[in-house]
């Protein structure tokens, strides 16, 4: 086996990647890092303006990227995004299933509509985007990397005042097991499937939830308790997660598949 230098391991020149929900937060951080490594990045989002802003920033730093409006929960959009990526960049090497939603609701108030929406984006879409990507990677015969953004809630729910937002840990637990099952099935095609499990990370989405939780009467002290429990004494930043996704998408992780990598500042062991 040829030993590659560290620079070669992280050089993604000539590769192309899809990042779902790349308009802000963790997805934006991932798009920035993949582009910095040389990959051409198809940035998807339901918010096209947000995706376009990510792309402008990548281009401003000399990278290559394109924005596309696509719903991470839509099977038709999965096919559309893969086709657009191959048409634009000539190939597809990396898929990052990042888009996810986490609306606030106690279990007794969850409607069927709300359950379906969360599960469609957080779990069903992860499968159908992976399927569309894998079909292309297998057709091209070069394998690829799929990285799913799960959550530490795939391993343990994090209730706030007894409210666990049930569909969220349920969907992320599904992503963790989907990651392992696909890793097993697609290993013969050299499609490596891994996931990251972020802890609480400061993003626009989390800021929205924090505002909603505060509005429901939970004290600031209660919210702050969560960050105080993190052994590294701070909440995550999008780039904390993006660096680990970069590693999993790189040749440095060529012997990893089916793993769920926890990135939480030590929260789960505290
Ligand atoms: N922030 C955290 O604390 C945290 C912790 C663990 C896991 N995660 C996971 O990380 C991922 C990103 O979270 P974030 O905090 O950056 O979120 P965010 O809300 O800050 O950003 C999400 C982005 O995805 C887009 N998006 C939402 N629904 C979409 C859809 N149906 N199709 C396409 N794009 C869509 C939004 O427009 C936005 O640009 C999610 O899967 C989330 O579950 C986040």
Class computed from helices, strands and strand pairing = alpha/beta
Report the top-level CATH class. Alpha Beta
CATH architecture identity? 3-Layer(aba) Sandwich
Mean pLDDT: 95
Q: How are helices and strands ordered from N to C?
A: HEHEHEHEHEHEHHHE
Q: What level of helicity do the residues show? A: 40-55%
Label the overall shape. Answer: globular
Q: How large is the count of helical segments?
A: 9
Largest β-sheet summary: 7 strands, parallel
CATH fold field value: Rossmann fold
The termini sit apart by 40 Å
Bound molecules: nicotinamide-adenine-dinucleotide
Residues in β-strands, percent: 5-15%
The CATH superfamily bears the name NAD(P)-binding Rossmann-like Domain
Low-pLDDT sequence parts: none
Describe what you observe in this structure:
By secondary structure, the chain is α/β, with parallel strands linked by helices. It has a single domain (14-200, 237-262), classed as 3-Layer(aba) Sandwich (Rossmann fold), CATH 3.40.50. The protein has helices at residues 6-9, 25-36, 48-60, 75-89, 112-140, 167-186, 204-215, 220-228, 238-249; strands at 16-19, 40-45, 65-69, 94-97, 144-149, 191-198, 260-263. A 7-stranded parallel β-sheet has the order 3-2-1-4-5-6-7, sandwiched between helices. The longest helix has 29 residues, at 112-140. It is globular and about 55 Å long. It starts with 5 loop residues before the first helix and ends in a 7-residue tail after the last strand. The model has no long low-confidence stretch (mean pLDDT 95). The structure holds nicotinamide-adenine-dinucleotide. The site of nicotinamide-adenine-dinucleotide has 30 residues, from helix 2, strand 2 and helix 7.
């Amino acid at each position: 086996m040829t030993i590659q230098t560290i620079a070669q391991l992280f050089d993604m020149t000539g590769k192309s990647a899809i990042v779902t929900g790349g308009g802000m937060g963790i997805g934006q951080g991932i798009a920035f890092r993949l582009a910095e490594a040389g990959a051409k990045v198809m940035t998807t989002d339901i918010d096209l303006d947000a995706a376009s802003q990510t792309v402008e920033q990548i281009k401003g730093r000399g990278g290559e990227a394109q924005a596309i409006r696509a719903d991470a929960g839509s099977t038709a959009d999965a096919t559309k995004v893969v086709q657009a990526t191959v048409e634009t960049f000539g190939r597809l090497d990396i898929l990052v299933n990042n888009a996810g939603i986490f609306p606030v609701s106690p279990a007794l108030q969850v409607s069927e509509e709300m359950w379906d929406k969360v599960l469609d984006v957080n779990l069903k879409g992860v499968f159908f985007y992976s399927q569309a990507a894998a079909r292309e990677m297998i057709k091209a015969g070069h394998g690829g990397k799929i990285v799913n953004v799960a959550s530490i809630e795939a391993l343990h729910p994090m209730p706030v005042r007894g409210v666990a937002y049930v569909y969220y840990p349920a969907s992320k637990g599904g992503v963790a097991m989907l990651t392992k099952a696909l890793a097993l099935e697609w290993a013969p095609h050299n499609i490596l499937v891994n996931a990251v499990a972020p802890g609480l990370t400061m993003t626009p989405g989390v800021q929205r939830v924090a505002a909603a939780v505060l509005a429901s009467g939970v004290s600031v002290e209660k919210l702050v308790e969560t960050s105080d429990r993190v052994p590294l004494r701070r909440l995550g930043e999008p780039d904390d997660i993006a660096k680990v996704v970069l590693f999993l998408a790189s040749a440095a992780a060529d012997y990893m598949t089916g793993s769920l990598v926890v990135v939480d500042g030590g929260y789960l062991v505290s």
